[in-house]
């Protein structure tokens, strides 16, 4: 009989934490989990899910305009922000309930309270002291807010989903995927959008020519991207927020969204008192089995700062379960060739190496296509698609797959399987295309 209250106690009921908790419970161990906020973590509440709902909402005006080119007597009406937010809230509540049922149905004990470590194998959960054989930290991340004069007048991505009114003019600060996604969302919904990027491009780390294509499409939509600039100060002038930029410009906005990255949510967890090691970005340091430098304390997901994607956290959780309870030699997952989608307008899909990365180690061939999809030929929609394959010359192995265009994320998933299996350009060429589709371009590139 165990001397502990729980065999496993999980701090954080996001995607990774919930998966670890319920799968561990399915192995017959006694599991507890604590969450001080809504169940489902960042993804369900202030991330992937509500943001994708916003992407859908923002796409309809262009769809209606395109329909006119196909003979439909259609017009774009007025967007009801409040009605959308209410619908979004209802859906998120439904998902919160599903997560609670998943835990309840597998016998996991849920504590809706703050949890922190206080000593070896011991936590404070709300007003209770609880012991556990193993402790798993899966608390995720939070928005990073840079320090400048007037930062308190800004909102973060966590706040966007609960705004009472749609901003007519919005400044999106940042050049990462969160920034470009929200820029497209608000532009699609009819807001005037500026993007402030401290570098000379957005989406640092993504394939160069794919990003160049995206930036051109964003600017064609009327999004003003201010490169190599930053905020000097912000002040309130009337009911507007007046921004003074480093280059001397001054502009007014209804809202200023800081999309300047995310950091690990490690505050008030007792990590410092326990001596748990953090790296220079404040992420928890773990070994190949996701164990911290303290015995029996583990961490997965965004809080360890490896690859901050929901499916990665879930894979890490499954790796731990296999290691703890199923005899696996290691909990380590394979971080190579992780397919990634950015739900900007148009979408980006990517898997494998960028051209710059590939050229460091391989002699490569690059195959590209930049075209106007058939769906836009009579609609009047001028948006285009860009596709790119990076291939090692000698083996013909596909090293990188990159796309910017409608439904790139949907198209990517199947190709990611092929690339993970080591597909070559010859394999692509051997497949007969499905005509007429945009996807057939992938098997006709030359």
Tell me what the structure shows.
- The chain has 446 residues and is an alpha/beta fold.
- It has 3 domains: 6-142 and 263-325, FAD/NAD(P)-binding domain (3-Layer(bba) Sandwich), CATH 3.50.50.60; 151-260, 3-Layer(bba) Sandwich (FAD/NAD(P)-binding domain), CATH 3.50.50; 340-443, Enolase-like, domain 1, CATH 3.30.390.
- Helix content is 31%, strand content 25%.
- It is built from 12 helices and 22 strands.
- The protein has helices at 15-26, 41-46, 48-69, 81-105, 157-160, 177-188, 208-220, 271-274, 310-325, 355-361, 408-420, 425-430, and strands spanning 6-11, 31-34, 109-111, 115-119, 122-125, 128-137, 141-143, 155-156, 169-173, 192-197, 224-227, 231-237, 240-245, 250-253, 255-258, 262-264, 297-299, 340-342, 348-352, 364-371, 385-392, 398-404.
- Helix 1 packs parallel to helix 9 and helix 3 packs across helix 6 (177-188).
């Amino acid at each position: 009989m165990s001397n502990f209250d729980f065999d496993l106690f999980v701090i954080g009921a996001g995607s990774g934490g919930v998966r670890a908790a319920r799968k561990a419970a399915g192995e017959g161990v006694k599991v507890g989990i604590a969450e001080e906020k809504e169940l489902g973590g960042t993804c369900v509440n202030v991330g992937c899910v509500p943001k994708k709902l916003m992407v859908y909402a923002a796409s309809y005006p262009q769809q209606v305009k395109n329909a006119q080119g196909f003979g439909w007597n259609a017009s774009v009406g007025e967007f009801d922000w409040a009605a959308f937010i209410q619908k979004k809230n209802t859906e998120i509540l439904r998902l919160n309930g599903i997560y609670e049922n998943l835990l309840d149905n597998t016998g996991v004990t849920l504590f809706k309270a703050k949890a922190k470590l206080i000593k070896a194998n011991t936590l404070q959960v709300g007003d209770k002291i609880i012991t556990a054989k193993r402790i798993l930290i899966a608390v995720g991340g939070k928005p990073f807010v840079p320090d400048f004069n007037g930062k308190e007048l800004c909102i973060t991505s966590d706040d966007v989903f609960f705004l009472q009114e749609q901003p007519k003019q919005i400044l999106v600060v940042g050049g990462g995927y969160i920034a470009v996604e929200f820029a497209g969302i608000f532009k699609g919904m009819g807001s005037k959008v500026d993007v402030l990027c401290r570098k000379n491009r957005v989406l640092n780390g993504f394939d160069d020519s794919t990003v160049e294509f995206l930036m051109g499409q964003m600017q064609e939509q009327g999004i003003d991207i201010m490169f190599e600039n930053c905020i000097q100060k912000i002040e309130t002038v009337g009911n507007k927020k007046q921004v003074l930029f480093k280059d001397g410009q001054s502009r007014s906005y209804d809202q200023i969204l800081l999309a300047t990255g995310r950091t690990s949510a490690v505050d008030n967890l007792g990590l410092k008192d326990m001596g748990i090691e953090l790296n220079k970005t404040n992420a928890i340091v773990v070994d190949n089995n996701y164990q911290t430098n303290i015995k029996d304390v583990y961490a997965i997901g965004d809080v360890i700062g490896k690859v901050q994607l929901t499916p990665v956290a879930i894979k890490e959780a499954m790796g731990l379960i296999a290691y703890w309870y199923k005899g696996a030699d290691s909990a380590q997952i394979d971080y190579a060739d992780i397919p990634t989608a950015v739900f900007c307008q148009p979408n980006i899909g990517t898997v494998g190496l960028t051209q710059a990365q590939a050229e460091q180690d391989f002699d490569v061939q690059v195959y590209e296509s930049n075209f106007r999809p058939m769906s836009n030929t009579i609609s009047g929609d001028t948006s285009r698609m860009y596709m790119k394959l990076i291939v090692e010359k000698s083996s013909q192995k596909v090293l990188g797959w990159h796309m910017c265009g409608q439904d790139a994320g949907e198209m990517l998933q199947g190709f990611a399987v092929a690339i993970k299996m080591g597909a070559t350009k010859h394999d692509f060429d051997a497949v007969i295309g499905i005509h007429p589709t945009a996807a057939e371009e992938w098997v006709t590139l030359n």
